[in-house]
Amino acid sequence: MKTRTLAMIDNLTPIERRRLELDMTRAELSHQSGVNKGTLEAWANRKRIPRDVYVLRKVAQALQCHIEDLLEPDPDEVEAAE
Q1: Residue 81 to residue 54: CA distance in whole angstroms
Q2: pLDDT: is 21 or 75 the higher one?
Q3: Could you give the C-alpha distances from 3 to 23, 29, 67, in angstroms and in order?
């Protein structure tokens, strides 16, 4: 990853973290995955969550990883485990 100032790197979604590791812009990810840039932005801002496994598969392929790597744990499950 190129040097970037990311004040809240710990708060990134797994998709955003992987995208930045590959030094990829959202526009590039959108182009490579076929997923609308607005959708990717909504996911990054946690305004929406990815639900369609076929769409996630396209994003995972573009990010060279597995779908499981892009999923966030359910907040209720995290709270119960603590």
Answers
A1: 29
A2: 21
A3: 10, 19, 26
Is the whole-model pTM more than 0.85? no
Structure-token pair, residue 42:
């909504």
One-letter identity of residue 25 = T
Closest CA to 21 of 55, 65, 52, 58: 65
Q: Which domains does the chain have, with CATH numbers?
A: 12-81 (1.10.260.40)
For residue 41, what are its two tokens?
A: 């932005």
Tell me what the mean pLDDT of segment 44-58 comes to.
94
Amino acid making up residue 26: R
DSSP class of residue 72 equals P
What is residue 54's DSSP assignment? Answer: H
Query: Cβ contacts of residue 49 below 8 Å, gap of 6+?
Result: 43, 72
